[in-house]
Amino acid sequence: MTRDDKLDQRPWLDPEAAPYIKIQGITKRFGDFTAVDNVDMDIYKGELFCWLGGSGCGKSTLLRMLAGFETPSSGKMFIDGVEINDIPAYERPVNMMFQSYALFPHMTVEKNIAYGLLRDGVEKSEIRKRVDEIIEMVELGQFNKRKPHQLSGGQRQRVALARALVKQPKVLLLDEPLGALDKRLREQTQYELMNIQEQLGVTFIVVTHDQEEAMTLSTRIAVMEKGKFIQTGTPTEIYETPDSRFIANFIGSANIFQGHVIENDKDHVLVKSRRDGSLFYIDHGLDIQENAKIWVAVRPEKIKISKTKPSQAGPNQLVGKVHDIGYLGKLSNYKVKLNNGKIVEITYPNQVRSTSGEHAVDWDDQVYLTWEPSSAVVLRH
Ligand code: ATP
Which residues, in sequence order, are bridge partners of residue 270? Predict the structure, then answer.
């Protein structure tokens, strides 16, 4: 279950709901290079929104513009209905947590957390109360007298988070917040981050290049490439209905077949493969012309693999030879080479314990691949 499945409300579907953060036509140029290209984005209160993209796509630059560390070349940004373009960074209702955490090495955990409030001139008793509350929330109580070098990576990450949250920002911006943690700790910390965000109801924007992290954390994801958002949606929408080959491959993996539409009805589309004439049946109609060149994507986990030939010939059937098997513990990955040379990937859960290393399907076996009409996605570009 992803995060969006748990949300009772999806304000982005409500035409009456006002966005909390509004980014309108924002562009950032460095000389003649455009790092962020005319971006529009609406984010609603309480969302944990991930901007996901490869290195250099412009996601940090956009985040830094919201924080006030970078000035847009054009466009406007609003938080809670107020335009923030001319508001200096320190007066914006946002706080930023950096990847490096930027903790003060000579200060204890509690002094690091209290520093921002002290600098803002908040009363001593109020500082004590807020620091204690936040230390309890991020479970750092037993470490509050330690200095950063006496903490693990995960604990340092929590200090940085506490320091950002103690100022009670309306919006918290996090740039690769879990980047410095190893895989196990990253997974554990993802859940802590989600819990804290849910408890406080603060709107989070997370920048990450890690698609699994984005899938786990987000209420919604926007995928960025070359300074533009190319698809925005809930994790389920992005995974199940990618709208381009780039997204299908960037979020998870996909087997992609090129073909053209030979039938387009209200309730189905039939696509013929360009390479070998195989047929793909998809269980919904499309607003597309017959003969249009398109691609069909089928996720590796949606394909069934069997040594038994299907009783009837039909669409959504391929035949090939097992070329490679990768045993990953909870899953096995099969690579099947079709007669036309194309390799198709299939992922299969290992539900039955196998100690002998034997697989029901083995190297060089002839196998039949099938999938449900609802499992394939048509991509137009
Ligand atoms: P990464 O995950 O590697 O940090 P990113 O998507 O966050 O990547 P940005 O830091 O936003 O990428 O940078 C986007 C592009 O803008 C990059 O090509 C970068 O080299 C360029 N860029 C960023 N800051 C500046 C700057 N101050 N001057 C010139 N070019 C810059």
Answer: 263, 281
∠301-336-216 over CA atoms, to 5°?
25
Query: From CA 338, how far away is CA 323, in angstroms rounded?
Result: 9
User: In angstroms, rounded to a whole number, what is the distance separating the alpha carbons of residues 28 and 71?
Assistant: 8
Which pLDDT score, from 0 to 100, does residue 101 have?
77
Probe ligand 1: pick from 27, 51, 59, max atoms within 8 Å of CB? 59
> What is the CB < 6 Å shell around ligand 1?
30, 35, 53, 55-61, 209
354 or 112, greater pLDDT:
112
Question: Average pLDDT, whole number, for the chain?
Answer: 91
The residue whose CA has the least distance to atom 2 of ligand 1 is 55
Establish if 373 belongs to a structural domain: yes
**Domain extent at residue 323:** 267-379
CATH number for the domain harbouring residue 370: 2.40.50.140
Q: Would you say 29 and 73 are in contact if contact means Cβ atoms under 8 Å apart?
A: yes
Atom of ligand 1 nearest to the CA of 61: 11
Q: Indicate the pTM of the whole model.
A: 0.87
Cα 279 to averaged position of ligand 1 atoms, centre (Å):
44
Q: Are residues 171 and 73 in the same domain?
A: yes
C-alpha 170 to ligand 1 mean position (Å): 26
Q: Whose CA is nearest to atom 3 of ligand 1?
A: 55
Closest CA to 103 of 114, 94, 112: 112
Q: 256 lies in a domain? A: no
Torsion of CA 134, 138, 140, 145, to 10 degrees: -40
Structure tokens at 189: 């910390």
Q: For 23-32, how does the pLDDT look when each residue is reduced to its tens digit (9 = 90+)? A: 999 999 999 9
Beta strand pairing status for 317-327 and 331-338?
antiparallel
Closest CA to 174 of 213, 134, 133, 212: 213
Residues 232 and 320 occupy one common structural domain = no
pLDDT of residue 1 exceeding 70, the answer is no
